[in-house]
Model the fold of this input.
Amino acid sequence: MTEFFLNHPVLAAVIGLLALAAAFGAMLGYASIKFKVEGNPIVEQIDNLLPQTQCGQCGHPGCRPYAEAIANGDDINKCPPGGESTMEALAELMGRDPMPLDADPEDIGVKKVAYIREDECIGCTKCIQACPVDAIIGATKLMHTVIEKECTGCDLCVEPCPVDCIDMLPVETTIKTWSWALPEGPNARFKGQVIATDGGQA
Amino acid sequence: MRTVWDFHGGIHPEENKQQSTQFPIVDAPLPKKVILPLQQHIGAPAEPVVLIGEKVRTGQLIAKADGFISANIHATISGTVVAIEDHAIPHASGMTDECIIIESDGQDEWIDLHPVKDWENADVETLLNKIAEAGIVGMGGAGFPTAVKARTRERHDIDTLVINAAECEPYITSDDMAMRTYPEQVIEGAKILCQLVNPSSCLIGIEDNKPEAIAALEAAAKGTHIEVVVVPTKYPSGGEKQLIRILTGREVPSGGLPADIGVVCQNVGTTIAIYKAIAKGEPLISRITTLTGSAFTRLQNFEVRLGTPINELLELGGFKNSLASRLIMGGPMMGFSLQGDELPVVKTTNCLLAPTHQEFPDPEMENPCIRCGMCEQACPAELLPQQLHWFSKAQEFEKAQLFNLFDCIECGACAFVCPSHIPLVQYYRYAKSEIRREDEEAKKAERAKIRFEQRQARLERQEAEAAARRKARMSASAKPAAKPAAKANEAATTAVDEAEQKKLKIQRAAAAVSVKKAEKALAEAKENNTDNLTELEQNLKGAQQKLADIDSKLGSAKPAAKPAASASGQVTEEHEKALKQAKIAAAASKAAIKKAEKALATAQEAGDTDEIKAKESDLATAKANAEKAADKLKQLQSTPPAAPQTNAAASEEHEKALKQAKIAAAASKAAIKKAEKALATAQEAGDADEIKAKEETLTIAKANAEKAADKLKQLQAAPASAVQPTSDSAQQAYETAKAEHEKSLKQAKIAAAASKAAIKKAEKALTAAQEAGDADEIKAKEDILNTAQSKAEAAAKKLEELKNNPPAAPAPQTAANAQTPEGSQAASSTEDDVAAREKALKQAKIAAAASKAAVKKAEKALQAAQDSGDAATISECEQTLSQAQTKAQTAADKLEAVKASQAVEA
Ligand code: SF4
Ligand code: SF4
Ligand code: SF4
Ligand code: SF4
Done:
């Protein structure tokens, strides 16, 4: 054997390489089966960037369908609830150029929550059927109400209500959701709560 | 002397502490009222346990800790709870939060206090409970519930207890004065803490600018293992991580807790509160607060009841508003400006600072960063403030987090040294709150996603179930029809066979699944070489056997019917076919009735009148169909001449029909009872709409009962003709037609009722519109009402027509073709008539329904008009209504007449 290889160095090299190729091929093949990635990870990634309001303003029945559409080449500027920041994140992820949002400027990024004027509700359950995230509770002929915590502000329950008793109210800032303002930057004084620390010597 | 380490950075602002240390601590006068926010700590707000108007005594629990990280709140004066409402609280946002407000009775009556006697020997749990009960939180600034912090020992090995007495922030002297006044309480408190966390050493870290306090503490600590460690004055040595570094040389890891490196740190004020809670049983109801700043005339430390409105304190301190540049809670470095003075003192209020304009001029203009790097040198957390500033400004929060934004303690040292007067801390605060908000949103989005997906899955499942049901129904009715050559007897047994076969098929499916499972298990077992192979093989064999059994049963069940079907050969194939189809139709319609009844029952349970109505009409249609099918069947069965077996079958059928009719009658009686009951409840509840709805249900139920009774009578009278094989098929055809007509009329009546309801609805809508006073809306509704009314009229007309056109006269046909297939042909021609009439009736029904709707609408409109008191509208509405009512009346009369004529004919 050794002698044979010594006598035929070229053949030995070829055989050796073939053996390596076969071994690695088998390993790769096994790995591709064993560590198979389920689904389309890019869709997953896009979906994670979308706000999950499930409002359908992008023209797709929910955020995931829009994520799939983007993966298939749809524009990235169709999600008003996500606003500028979502579009930019999508542009970065997809390696595309940012583009202006395709929406009413008033609609962009405004967080809203549905509110049912409960004494006017006739309990028709239409809004329950419309809500994409099951954030409305109630029963036939009984008053309905919105679980504020789960409401995504998608607006979809307003239209079906036969007595127009659902309002979309802007989400109010409470002491828990309040946040500091961004200082305006150079050549301005920060009007907020800055104390001695801003002016140098106390 | 202990080695003392140094920490990176730090600054030396002017101390300004001497102003407020000239006089001893004084009890502030009792406030007239106290405002106690439910959240004065980190964690969940407390849950109120008192009611408005309740009398409380000092120290009484008024709000209970809600959750693991939360703290109790106690009444700080005796008096009456006057409100539990949103009130402005000291917070940088200047917003409101829920507070309990107590008005003083001036007595300051305390509850009975229960100190822990002999605490040196008490167990840890008792002490911890007492601390938690007392509502003690970190009093240095953050307000973290102390009992929770003291429990860290359960999860970490603690070797060092640090009492933070550094009080490094300028102006504030509350800890200093407390240590001077109550050194023994500090030491006792530290001892209690030692007992809780059981450290090997206990260090009190104190800056060297408080010599009196140091002396007092050292005197008190003599003879204990507690060590007073004097550290050089440098801001912010009182930062928890910084003090730990100074005293132990250990570095708290980024994002970690002191407990991770075996240290627990408590503030002096907290230590005193612990002592009071354990040794005196006093809950946390007051604290020492420094009033300082040159806008006060009386700069001093006061023992203040929590919840005391700040304006009372300002008065006490001789606050001069004209001098003050602002009012700050906390110190000049880490405090925040207050908006208004209607705010209460809370557990973390260590200082009220009212500086003059000289002391605290307005903020300087922010200039661009010159990249001098001074901030970096000042930062005690060893961060890169400049970078953080850029990232925060550009909203590149991810990068800011990479640069450890959350390790920033917001000490303000960087902003203090910044030559460009950049409000750096504000940038960090902004970035931190934005990041927290984004996190919240991401969490919410995740929840929304899950909820959306779950909902989607649910809808799909329901859709699939519905589709499966549809399919099952379709195949159930299609299968028997696919065997046109089947014999008559087979048809008679089809229903039974089918049921059997279905059962068998289900069993077969289950058996197949179990076989597959067994096979899989076996395969797996073989792969894994497990030793229960034989057992598994047996299982598989058993399952296969079962499957084979079922298969053979299934096979035999099918042909079993065939040999039995040795009907007389004279019967024509066509006739057989027709009979079979009729039977199938009968079976299907029966199933439909059952389903409709079930649906009705559920609807009645749910109490949805619309639904009930819809279901009832469904039921009526189903019953009508069933009747039709039964009639046809009967007719067909009695037609064949030389088929003795079918005679028997016919009589059987008749008996069956009789039975069913009886059952139906009984069921309808039950329905009436139920409806009556429902009506009674509705009347009790006094809901007019409900009552109306129930009354309608009741009438419908009664009508059904009548129908059932009629049918029963009819059937009982008919047997002779049915049993007779030579009975006249034409007569039967006529009967069928009559029944059809009757049915159609009934349906028309129902439709008329429905249309009335529709009118009422329209009226209601109009009323609402009129109430709302929207002219356009009113017009629109009136239009709808008018259309509905005209439709109702049309329906009524059609009804009349129908009434005047009873089924084709039976007499001429009676004597005609008997006993032959021709008879069935004649019957089918009559059926054509019936179908045409039925169609007309249906249309009439729809129209009648619409007209009823119009009437209802008009009524509503009138009511609304009366409510609004507009005379012109009222008269208009009244006219419309009377018109609608006349129309409805006509329709009802016609219906009545039709009913009467039908009864006579029957
Ligand atoms: S527009 Fe609405 S549904 Fe579409 S991606 Fe944005 S949030 Fe989701
Ligand atoms: S759609 Fe409107 S009326 Fe109907 S249940 Fe919802 S809120 Fe009530
Ligand atoms: S505020 Fe933050 S960044 Fe600035 S010095 Fe203090 S810890 Fe460092
Ligand atoms: S101290 Fe101010 S000017 Fe200097 S580098 Fe820091 S932020 Fe920039």
About this structure: Chain B touches chain A through 68 residues (CB under 8 Å). Chain B has 25 helices and 17 strands. The mean pLDDT of chain B is 74. The CA atoms of residues 522 and 786 of chain B lie 75 Å apart.
